[in-house]
Amino acid sequence: MKSDLTGLGELGQLGITDSDLKKSVAFYRDVLGLRHLFDAPPGMSFFACGNIRLMLSVPEGSAERFNAAVYFKVPDIQTTRELLVERGVLFEAEPRLIAKMPDHELWLGFFRDPDKNLLALMCEKRS
């Protein structure tokens, strides 16, 4: 029997484990400017990213860490990059053109949070 995957197209939350939750909360809230929603025990903090919720948590017991690449869609990648650099963010390289699509160019710029999780700025430049 074929499974029905209807409803799996929308992402509701991304989760990242961090070794120092306090430091990571400050980074996502104060440096990246995400709106902090709430904290929940044991060791979780949630942020609003448009229609997606970001959960930061500390690894529990012997649980393995998990990592995810989080892509932040921005209208102007260079201006956003400059603002983040002023706030102390180190980019792995200058944002660059990844692909030319029929109606836009896809640009990405990668950086990391305090726990070395991979983050990126994503911009769809339209002509």
Q: Summarize this, please?
A:
The chain has 127 residues and is α/β, with parallel strands linked by helices. The chain is built from two helices and eight strands; from the N terminus they run E-H-E-E-E-E-H-E-E-E.
**Which structural class is indicated by helix and strand composition?**
alpha/beta
The strand order across the widest sheet is: 1-4-3-2
Tell me about the largest β-sheet.
4 strands, mixed
Helical segment count = 2
Spell the H/E element sequence. EHEEEEHEEE
Measured distance between first and last alpha carbons: 45 Å
CATH architecture: Roll
- As a percent range, the share of helical residues equals 10-25%
**Looking at CATH, which topology would you report?**
2,3-Dihydroxybiphenyl 1,2-Dioxygenase, domain 1
Question: What sort of overall outline do the alpha carbons produce when their principal axes are compared?
Answer: globular
What is the total number of structural domains?
A: 1
Mean pLDDT: 85
Number of DSSP strand runs: 8
Beta-strand percentage range: 35-45%
- Contiguous uncertain segments of 5+ residues: 1-6
> What gyration radius follows from the Cα positions, in whole Å?
16 Å
* CATH level 1 class label: Alpha Beta
**CATH-assigned homologous superfamily:** 2,3-Dihydroxybiphenyl 1,2-Dioxygenase, domain 1
Mind explaining what this structure looks like?
With 127 residues, the chain is α/β, with parallel strands linked by helices. It has a single domain, classed as 2,3-Dihydroxybiphenyl 1,2-Dioxygenase, domain 1 (Roll), CATH 3.10.180. 17% of the residues lie in helices and 38% in strands. A four-stranded mixed β-sheet has the order 1-4-3-2, covered by helices on one side. A hairpin with a 3-residue loop joins strand 2 (35-40) and strand 3 (44-49). The chain is globular, with a radius of gyration of 16 Å.
